[in-house]
Amino acid sequence: MSISVIKRSLLSLGILATTVLLAACGSKSSNQGSTKLASNQKISLSTTAEITSLDLSKIYDKTSFIQIDETFEGLYRYDANGNVEPALATKTKISKDGKTYTINIRHNAKWSNGDPVTAKDFVYSWQRAVNPKTASQYTYLFDNVKNADAIVNGKLSPNKLGVKANGKYQLKVQLARPTTYFKMVMARETLYPLDQKVVEKYGKKYGTSAKYTVYNGPFKNVGWTGTNDSWKLVKNNQYWDKKAVKLSQINYTVAKSPSTAYNLFQSGKLDLISLVGEQAKQLGKSKDAVKRPLAATEYLQYNQRKGVFKNRNLRLAFSLALNRSQLINKVMQNGSIVSKGFVPADFAKNPKTGEDFAKEAYVPGTVDHDATKAKQYYKKALSQLGKKNLTIKLLSADDDQTKDVIEFIQSELQETLPGLKVELSSIPFASMLARTSAGNFEVNFTGWSADFADPISFLSQFTSNNPENNGKWSSQAFDQAIKDSNNKDANNATKRWQDLINAEKILATDQGITPIYQANGIDLVNPKLKGVVYDRINGHYDYRTAYLTK
């Protein structure tokens, strides 16, 4: 999933998946065990970027995903221990060959307009997502569903997708191949249901503002017009489990400046903020500080459709010119760690040996700071390109933390590589995503957080035809490794693991992208705010069971 500074991606669970932010909810009575609830159950939060859409088939950024998490619900959700648990699903039967899922859906779920949530809502949503006309960037989540690839490539009609409704409250899913992590996939927002009647009523307007959207989750959005930087989530009284929801309202505002967010927190106008830079250094040991491990990688993506970044030596020069340790120790100061590759550390382990994926897939000489080798690669690149110097444009989002990072990158590159000029362009996050998706960039600082706790959640986006592959890096060997992991080796854990290791090594060796750091963080949290679940795989916060104490 895109992440504000972190670009996407997706959410998840699995190995080391989810941690609890604060204490989970206890009793269903007005008191949480012996804890008394505050009379006012309203909290205030901030984001560093605007909502791009409330259309769950089209969203691709962290802010919008978090809004969908709170206002919609799918078949499954992630619990505080990183496992999937039923949400709208009441019973799931998996065939012996692992390719057919028969899922019973609860009968008491409703949309915020009173319409019942049915199996057909899932069929409609899934078919809409894979329809090329929708232009979803998350079609890869359906890769293992029967006929999905052919539909996405325009070779079959969306109604041929391997999903159908058996009556009003049973869903049958046919996979093209066994997929051990498919329940994780079904907990993703892109596979949530949609109210067909409402989507078709509003047409192109659907999801472009709060009033053109209908919700089936614990909250509903009020006040987002499509362009404003503040909105509210209010309790959805049609939600099937509304008794579990204690908050009556969540106020959101966009605060791109960490100092602005901190001032609002200090004055009691925000209940949770993320710390960066000097804030993290000075306040990281506060009694209200909470560490936030995150399976997310910040990286440089290069436009390889045409131009200078088709040159591998130039990409390697950029990577080796960066002193990543200095960046995280002097600029970030929030617990982030240097990347060994695209897949984060402590995310997945070898099923046979227990070795960490990032350690096993690490390729020496690809992300290690080495100014001498960087200059050598740069000199070769200039010679191959027939140039004496270069001017390139580095595109990024315009929040303060990102600006600090790209100014560091600019300084490192210009000081290390003679004759290189780096021009910075910082624009609103949604605009940046639109430009990169259209291929309108040279180099882009962005990021990816996991969709679920499996390396494929990171690596699959760089297959040649993946819509998330904005730079259009392409490798037949990489594509084959991913294909093998999803097909002939899908049921052999050891062989599949090696396919994914090989894919990561191919990406690293060619520097298809340049990983920079793993975006861990630190939050300051109102001590009265309890019951929030933080997902360390994708960095999403779940406020369904949150509450304020007296």
Describe this structure in words.
Keywords: Signal, Transport. It is found in: Cell membrane. Belongs to the bacterial solute-binding protein 5 family. Residues 84-469 form the Solute-binding protein family domain. It is a single chain. The chain contains 16 helices and 25 strands. With 550 residues, it is an alpha+beta fold.
Keywords, please?
single chain, 550 residues, alpha+beta, 7-stranded mixed sheet, 4-stranded mixed sheet, 25 strands, disordered N terminus
Question: Short summary of the structure?
Answer:
This protein is an alpha+beta fold and 550 residues long. The strands form seven sheets. Strands 1, 15, 16, 17, 18, 19 and 20 form a seven-stranded mixed β-sheet that branches. Mean pLDDT is 91; it is low at 2-31.
Radius of gyration: 23 Å
Approximate helicity band: 25-40%
**Main pleated-sheet profile:** 7 strands, mixed
The structure class reads alpha+beta
Query: How many helices does DSSP assign?
Result: 16
How many beta-strand elements? 25
Report how far apart the termini are: 36 Å
Overall shape: globular
Strand coverage percent: 15-25%
Pick out the low-confidence regions: 2-31
Keywords: Signal, Transport
Main location: membrane
Family: Belongs to the bacterial solute-binding protein 5 family.
Organism: Pediococcus parvulus
Lay out the secondary structure.
Layout lengths: L7 E2 L8 E3 L21 E6 L14 H10 L4 E3 L5 E3 L2 E6 L5 E6 L13 H12 L17 H5 L10 E3 L4 E5 L7 H5 L9 H7 L16 E4 L7 E6 L13 E6 L3 H9 L5 E4 L1 H7 L5 E4 L3 E7 L9 H10 L2 H9 L4 E2 L18 H5 L9 H15 L4 E8 L2 H17 L3 E8 L1 H9 L5 E7 L6 H4 L16 H11 L6 H18 L2 E6 L2 E5 L3 E2 L2 E3 L4 E3 L4 E2 L2
Parallel strand pairs: 1-19, 3-12, 17-18, 17-19
Antiparallel strand pairs: 2-23, 4-5, 6-7, 7-9, 8-9, 10-11, 11-12, 13-21, 14-21, 15-19, 15-20, 16-20, 22-25, 23-24
Family: Belongs to the bacterial solute-binding protein 5 family.
Keywords: Signal, Transport
Membrane topology: Lipid-anchor
